[in-house]
Amino acid sequence: MHTASFEGVEDAARQIAGVALRTPLIESPALNARVGGRVLLKAENLQHAGAFKFRGAYNRISRLDAAERARGVVAYSSGNHAQGVAAAAALVGTRALIVMPADSPAIKIEGVRSFGGEVRLYDRWTESREEIGAAVATERGSILVPPFDDPFVIEGQGTTALELLDQAEGAAIDQLLCCCSGGGLMAGINLVIEALSPATRTWAVEPAAFDDTARSLAAGARVGHPPAAPSICDALQTPMPGALTFPINRRALAGALSVTDQQAAEAVRYAFRTLKLVVEPGGAAALGALLAGKVETRGRTTAVILSGGNVDPALFSAIIEDRFTGA
Predict the structure, then answer these.
(1) Does the model's pTM come out above 0.85?
(2) What is the pLDDT, as a whole number, of residue 105?
(3) What is the 3-state secondary structure of the chain?
(4) Active-site annotation, residues
(5) Any residues with CB less than 8 A from the CB of 143 and at least 6 apart, and which?
(6) Tens digit of pLDDT for each residue in 204-244?
(7) Percent of the chain having pLDDT more than 90?
(8) Does 92 score more than 90 pLDDT?
(9) pLDDT digits (tens, 9 = 90+) for 113-170
(10) Rounded to the nearest 5°, which phi and psi values hold at 109?
């Protein structure tokens, strides 16, 4: 059985080369001055389909053989993996059905359909997306492409860090902050950091009410979080870390940080006003932790992953116009 590894990330980089975008690494003098250190921002909000998820989706789907492509793919996602899968499926010439929460931002549902994907909506509070996805895949004979618990998906996401370290041009990165849901991006990044920059401390960032990674690190095993009201970080509301991702993250992470919806909103606002970037709340969570002083930044070099930009227009407008009144 294939196991996610650093060598696999290197292979993924070759697999997605020329298809996935090499997103920019941005440095802002204003941000550096604000935090008293150097900050390097990896702008995955500018990736195909608006998020890092395209990397893992294409690395997995492009490896299907002709018979598998003829059967199509099925995925479940709150939106960014959904769009990444739909975009990758269109590129390799297969069909995609995505199981999405009924309360997903409309822009994400529309994004899937714009790539030719079929959408099956479900109630995230009363139904299991895994059960629905597995049932549809069985019924159709399709290939299931999980959002994080797949070694090829993990390795595809890890190419983000390969690029980042190359673009940093030898700068010693003291710490790296990355949003964390099921942990696929974080795990892929950790595989690279362990191999190429072991002195770098990595931090997972979660919504305050969806802190399953922090709870799991404390427990030493995968655990969930108590029931919670929805967060504006819709991309980060996974109930529990992944079975494949958590062992990697458990050994590699310095720890897990949390941000409130208000702190995530402040990061969205800052990204727009100062960095001139559109970043969704979940994609801005790591920046939110930085701006809120969750880690020491003075005299240090900090890498921050801006993981996605698929934000609901009405929510975005409320945030940047200071009308958002979330917790």
Answers:
(1) yes
(2) 86
(3) CCCCCHHHHHHHHHHHCCCCCCCCEECCHHHHHHHCCEEEEEEHHHCHHHECHHHHHHHHHCCCCHHHHHHCEEEECCCHHHHHHHHHHHHHCCCEEEEEECCCCHHHHHHHHHCCCEEEEECCCCCCHHHHHHHHHHHHCCEECCCCCCHHHHHHHHHHHHHHHHHCCCCCCCEEEEECCCCHHHHHHHHHHHHHCCCCEEEEEEECCCCHHHHHHHHCCCCCCCCCCCCCCHHHCCCCCCCCHHHHHHHHEEEEEEECHHHHHHHHHHHHHHHCCCCCCHHHHHHHHHHCCCCCCCCCEEEEEECECCCCHHHHHHHHCCCCCCC
(4) 53, 307
(5) 64, 68, 71, 72, 73, 74, 137
(6) 999 999 999 999 999 999 999 988 889 999 999 988 999 99
(7) 91
(8) yes
(9) 999 999 999 998 899 988 999 999 999 999 999 999 999 999 999 999 999 999 999 9
(10) -65, -45
